[in-house]
Structure formats: C-alpha cells, structure tokens
Write a structure and sequence with these properties.
Layout (H helix, E strand, L loop, with lengths): L2 E4 L3 E3 L3 H9 L11 E11 L5 E10 L5 H7 L4 E10 L4 E8 L6 E11 L7 E11 L6 H32 L53 E3 L5 E3 L4 H4 L9 H8 L4 H17 L7 H10 L4 H17 L5 H4 L4 H6 L2 E6 L5 E5 L6 H35 L6 E6 L10 H17 L4 E7 L5 H8 L5 H4 L2 E3 L46 H5 L12 E6 L4 E7 L5 E10 L2 E8 L7 E2 L15 E2 L12 E2 L4 E3 L4 E7 L4 E9 L13 H9 L4 E11 L1 H14 L8 E3 L16 E6 L1
Parallel strand pairs: 12-13, 13-14, 14-15
Antiparallel strand pairs: 1-8, 2-8, 3-4, 4-5, 5-6, 6-7, 7-8, 9-10, 11-12, 16-26, 17-25, 18-24, 18-26, 19-22, 19-23, 19-25, 20-21, 24-28, 27-28
Helix pairs in contact: 1-3, 6-7, 7-8, 11-12
Pfam families: CRAL_TRIO, CRAL_TRIO_N, PRELI
GO molecular function, one term: RIG-I binding
InterPro entries: CRAL-TRIO_dom, CRAL-TRIO_dom_sf, CRAL/TRIO_N_dom, CRAL/TRIO_N_dom_sf, GOLD_dom, GOLD_dom_sf, PRELI/MSF1_dom, SEC14/CRAL-TRIO_domain
Length: 737
C-alpha cells in the first residue's frame, strides 16, 4: 500500500532570499538532524544569466533501525538523490528527492517548494509532499514502513525549527537582508559560517545505481506544483502563488491549523489536507468546513479510506435532506417549545457550549405521538447544527479551537414509562443518525441523578453508541454530583442551573405530559412531508362493524414473546388473540364501499375465514379485552405452541338493556358519536425471543415492581389466576387512562 504525506502551507515571516541563505547552511551536513550524516554535490549547473541554479546532491542518512535489520539488509547508511532548482527570478526553490538505496524494493519520492507568499512578498511559504511504496523487503515490509513513517514524521516536525535556527544564526552574524536577483546584479553570494564547512565523515560508499521510480498517476499526485483545472486535467503551475492565492478556506496554512483546528501531528495534518483536496477535486456539492472533516478523521483514527467513506455517506445524506439549510428552514412546533425539556445554557470551563437535557421530566411517548419520529429527529438535528455554529463562535471568542460541546443530562424523574419500547426504538434511531453524521461532536456527557432504572436504559442504548463516545460519559447517582470531582470540576459555579442547586436561572422548559388531544395518526404525520427515514414504528388500522382488523404473526419457536402497544384513537374495540396450526388464506382488504365510507388513510385486513370454526380451526388464547376510546394498551403474550397467531381488533357492540331488548339512550348516543360504525387504532407489535424477554424481565424485577408506572393498571390481571407459568401462556397488559 502506498503511504502518502502532504504538508500544510508553512509560513516564514522572512524574505525568500534570506530563507534561501538559511537553507544553504544545512549543507553539507546538519548537526540538528543527527541522521543526516553527509552530502556530496554530484552536479551543479547555472543558467547564462545566473537566474537559475540546479544542484544535485547525494545524501547519506543513518536511519534509526534495529541493528539486525541493517545486517540483514547489508547496509549502514541509506543514500538519497536530491535535485534542487533555484529560480531567483521567480523566487522559487523546487526540491525533488528519491532513494537510491533499495530502489528496486522501496520507492520513496518527495517534492518540496519554497515560494513567495501570495499576499506578502516579504514572507516565504513552504510546502512538502511525499509517497512511500514498499514492494518487498526481506519479509520486513510492515516494520520498514513503520520505521520510515516515524523517521519522516520526526524530520518534518523539525524542518521549520531548523530553518528558524539558521535564520537566527544569520542575524547573529549580522546578516538581516539579502538582495534580490536582477539581470544586472552579480551572482548571489551566500555566506556560510566556517564552523559548518567541514569535511564529511568517512562513510562506506555504495556504487551509484539508477533509481527505479514508478511515476504517479496525475490524480494521485500530492505535489505542490500541480494544479487541477475544472475539466479535470492537471497542469504545471508557474509558481506556488497560483495555488496559494486566497484565504485559509482555499489552502490550509500551518498557523491556521494550530489556531482553529488544534495541535496535529504532521501525519494528521497530511490526512486532513489530502482528504480536503480530494473533496475539492471530486465532490460537486458544498465542501464541509475543515473542523467537520477533521471530526470524521478523528472518528476513524485518521484512517483516510474509512474516514472518506463515512464522510461521503454523510455528505450525500446532508444534500438529500437539505440539512445545510435546516437552521434557516426549521421552525420548532409549539409542542416542542412547551414540552421538549432541553436547551443551550452558557458554556463549560473549557469553553465548550453546554446543552442541558432534563430527560427525566420529558414525556417521550407523548412527543413521539404528537410529533412523529421525523419531526423529533429533525429537532435533534437542528440542535446538532446549532451546536456546530456555537463551536465556531466560541473558537473566535476564546481564541482556541473548540470543536465539540458538553451535554448535561438530568435523570431525576426517570422511571419505567421512559422505557416505552417504541420510544426507545425512536431514540436508538436518532442516536444512529447522529453518530453517523455528527461524529466527535460530544466532548463530555454529564449524567446526573441516575435512578435505579437507568442501568436498563443504558443496556438498551449503549451498544449503539461509539466506543470513543462512551468513554466521555460521567455518571453520578443521587447527589454525588455536588461533591468533589462533581459538577463544579466541569462547570463554573456561577452558571450551575437552579434546579441542580445553583444560582443561575435556566430557561429549559420543565416539560410535563403532552395532552392526548395533541396525538396524531401516522397518516397525518406523513402528510407533513418531513421524512428523514423511510420506516415508521406505528401502523394505523380502521375497524368497522362486521369487519375487524387482523394481524398475522408466525411463531417458529415456542415460548417466544409477542408484545404490542396500541392506542384506541376512535370508538371502542375488543382485542383478541387467536392461534391456528395452519396458515390463513392470503389477507384480504375489506371493501370500504360496503360500509358507505371512503377513508383517506388506515387499512383493514381480515385473515380468519368465515368458514373457520372456533375451537376446531383456530382457538382463543386470551380472554377478550374491551378497550375504550382514548386508552393506550401495552401487553405481551408468551406463546405455548409454534404456528400462526392472529391479533384482532374488533368493533365493540354495545350490550342491550337486560330488562328489554331495546338499547339504552346512553348507548344510542355513544353509538352516534362513532360515525358510520368506524373505529381507529394505531398499533405496534414485536416478537422477542424468550431469552431476550427473560433478561428484560430480570432487569425490571431488579429495579422494582412494574406498578411503578404512574396512572396504569393491569388490564389482563384477571388472567393470571387462570394460568400457570409452566403449562399455560402468560400475558400482561398495561392500560393508561
């Protein structure tokens, strides 16, 4: 595999001619680079007018490699050929070098360029690129690659320091200015301190052998002298100024990286520059900011291929859903403003934006039912987009790179109702989208007042969170956050929210239960056309007198668990569960026209054939459950046999008065409220393996009774007396009124 390096633009705030004088002092040897033991001038040419000087050197390097490896290779020194072209008229120095030793096994190619800064002619720019391709090396390819990259990274880091050292040396010698070249000037004389002009040490010479260089394809060249046109062709640039023109948004500068992106190793800088350059050449849409590119590289430990893959997927997702314009186009619905218990609150001690989420006070089920998963996800994405914007602002305010934020989650009030399975599923999907598109944006997560139910939620959620992100979690139970090592270590005392014992007023909504009058059907939510994923948790069904809605579930393994959650949106229904050993006929949809109804949404399917006989062709495995309009029903059924289970929602017929066969007045009025004898339910079902269900039950039992659910009672509790855990199926259902 070819390893590549591309440096940022490094700026010396000195004129080009003075930098060249400092550069010449590096030869024939440099005590600041111990591995650079000697160099000989092999060839030197000067143009007629003296403007161009070409120098070819043969350099010897004492590579820091294991002695055994050197003995196997049969060498003590590694030789490189360096070709320098100094154009004093254009004020550029182009450097090309390649390895002479082992050139048939290892190919090293490096290009460097010194040139005048495009915006200040008294400053000098430097760029560097290199490639390493190890074909074979006595079975030590991986070791040689690591040694080479380590040595190269070390020399790069010292490069700027060495030039600055010789610039100071020139100043100490009284040389602070060097004249520019002109056609009438004499040849440039570069004074050198006599202490450095010494004979190189005696070293064993190797016969000069022609270097075998594999030319790089145009689209793979990282050299500073290449420029891409819009048509995709690559041309030679007359000078680096053509490439460097513009601000850091066009070309990355080393000082800009340190100021806005932080301290990066040379190889990390190279990954950032190369990935950014690749995006500029291939991506047709909006190029993300450098901070965002860097987040994807960090998320994949600066593996270029992996980072490029997830970044491209994210850019496609952003373009498809117009996420770049989310902050301008998204307006939070009133229900979010009133019941979503989260908001931004100053910053932490490190200058990171601080987001507070009072999860324990949030009605997750009510928000999902009132808004739908799409709107809730869009709101979470807007929070992340706002977080990116605040990071940029804080970077400018505090004068140092700030690329992530801190999140404080208060879990006071968290209980079993927050483990509502569809709500947890929606949460996991949101986490999945955020992890894929906003990596490395969470600097720290402070979880306060974690209750006993928290381990269950953590068990469900943690597998979907990246390992690097999980390491940033700090969890405090009870009032532990108030002691040493608690909240004050991360947040200034002056901005600790009042509800956590601080003195700062926090504008985060207190939440509460979302009124059920605000709940909406899937059809209503789909009409808003804000879909960010295609799958939805709930399905909607219409139920008519004489036309129930039925759902088929095939069970392969006995003792599986069928779970359900449904809301009765309109009318009263009867819920039944049946079992059959044979599969029903293909489902048929009830023709609504027979009921004189045209329904814009919802479906109605019948599975039980009218010729089937109850007790012979199919059997009832649970007693019927009557559910009133507005009720929410949750339950589960542990299957005893494999086969086909049918969940049925049936129109509830009002019982007649016992004294007469005539219906009561209240019954007639109630019937009139259900127009055209139509009921409607929103439902969600899932099948769990018995082991998964037992694990969940053990977690719940360790935390306390299921009756901790507020405003709930067991609708199937009467069934427990007629069943046993060993030979009968067991079911429980929780009805919220």
């Amino acid at each position: 595999m070819v390893q590549k390096y591309q440096s940022p633009v490094r700026v010396y705030k000195h004129p080009f001619e003075l930098v060249m004088a400092a550069y010449e002092r590096r030869f024939p040897t440099c005590h600041l680079i111990p591995m650079f033991v000697a160099s000989d001038v092999v060839n030197e040419e000067t143009s007629e007018d003296g403007s161009t000087i070409r120098v070819e050197r043969r350099c010897a390097l004492d590579v820091d490699a294991p002695r055994l490896l050197k003995r196997i290779a049969g060498v003590d020194y590694v030789y490189f050929i360096q070709k320098n072209t100094l154009n004093r008229k254009e004020r550029t120095l182009h450097i090309e070098s390649h390895n002479e030793t082992f050139s048939n096994r290892v190919i090293i190619h490096e290009t460097c360029c010194y040139s005048v800064h495009p915006e200040n002619e008294d400053w000098t720019c430097f760029e560097q690129s290199a490639s390493l391709d190890i074909k074979s090396f006595f079975g030590f390819e991986s070791t040689v690659e690591k040694i080479a990259m380590k040595q190269y990274a070390s020399s790069i880091k010292k490069g700027k320091e060495i030039i600055e050292f010789y610039l100071r040396e020139l100043e100490d010698d009284g040389i602070t200015h060097m004249p520019r070249w002109s056609p009438f000037s004499c040849s440039l004389s570069i004074p050198r301190p006599t202490s450095l002009i010494t004979s190189p040490p005696t070293i064993p010479r190797l016969a000069i052998t022609p270097a075998v260089i594999i030319p790089l394809a145009c689209d793979e060249k990282d050299g500073a002298l290449l420029e891409s046109k819009q048509d995709g062709s690559v041309v030679q640039a007359d000078s680096l100024a053509e490439i460097l023109a513009g601000t850091p948004e066009d070309k990355l500068d080393a000082d800009y990286i340190k100021r806005y992106l932080g301290d990066l190793t040379p190889l990390q800088e190279s990954c950032l520059i190369r990935l950014r350059k690749w995006l500029q050449e291939t991506h047709k849409g909006k190029i993300p900011k450098d901070e965002h590119i860097l987040r994807f590289l960090r998320a994949r430990d600066f593996n270029m291929d992996k980072a490029r893959e997830i970044l491209c997927q994210s850019l496609t997702w952003r373009k498809q859903h117009q996420v770049d314009y989310l902050l301008e186009t998204w307006s939070s619905p009133q229900v979010l403003q009133d019941y979503y218990t989260g908001g931004w609150h100053h910053h932490d001690r490190d200058g990171r934006p601080l987001y507070i989420l009072r999860l324990g006070q949030m009605d997750t089920k009510g928000l999902v039912r009132a808004l739908g998963e799409e709107s809730l996800l869009r709101h979470v994405l807007s929070i992340n987009e706002e977080g990116l914007r605040r990071c940029e602002e804080n970077t400018k305010v505090f004068g140092r790179p700030i690329s992530c934020w801190t999140c404080l989650v208060d879990l006071e009030g968290l209980n079993m109702r927050h483990l509502w399975r569809p709500g947890v599923k929606a949460l996991l999907r949101i986490i999945e989208v955020v992890e894929a598109n906003y990596p490395e944006t969470l600097g720290r997560l402070l979880i306060l007042r974690a209750p006993r139910v928290f381990p269950v939620l953590w068990t469900l959620v943690s597998p979907f969170i990246d390992e690097n992100t999980r390491k940033k979690f700090l969890i405090y139970a009870g009032n532990d956050y108030q002691g040493p090592g608690g909240l004050v270590d991360y947040i200034d005392k002056e901005i600790i929210p009042d509800f956590l014992g601080g003195e700062c007023m926090c504008e985060v909504p207190e939440g509460g239960l979302v009124p059920k009058s605000m709940y909406r059907t899937p059809e209503e939510l789909e009409n808003e056309d804000v879909r960010l994923w295609t799958e939805t948790i709930y399905q909607s069904a219409s139920i008519f007198k004489g036309a129930p809605h039925e759902l088929l579930i095939e069970i392969i393994d006995a003792s599986s668990v069928i779970t359900w959650d449904f809301d009765v949106c309109k009318g009263d229904v009867v819920f039944n569960i049946y079992h059959s050993k044979r599969a029903p006929q293909p489902p048929r949809k009830d023709p609504l026209g027979t009921h004189g109804i045209t329904s814009p949404g919802g479906n109605n399917v019948q599975l039980i054939d009218k010729s089937w006989t109850l007790g012979q062709d199919y059997s009832m495995v649970e007693s019927p459950l009557t559910c009133k309009e507005g009720e929410s029903v949750q339950g589960s059924h542990i299957t005893r046999w494999p086969g086909f289970y049918i969940l049925q929602w049936k129109f509830y017929n009002m019982p007649a008065c016992s004294a007469t066969n005539l219906p009561r007045v209240d019954d007639v009025l109630a019937t009139l409220q259900v127009s055209s004898h139509k009921c409607k339910v929103m439902y969600y079902t899932e099948v769990l393996g018995s082991e998964d269900f037992r694990t969940a039950c053990c977690d719940v039992q360790s935390l306390g009774s299921m009756t901790s659910l507020e405003s709930s009672h067991s609708g199937f509790s009467q069934l427990s007396a007629a069943t046993t855990s060993s030979s009968q199926s067991h079911s429980s259902s929780l009805i919220s009124r």
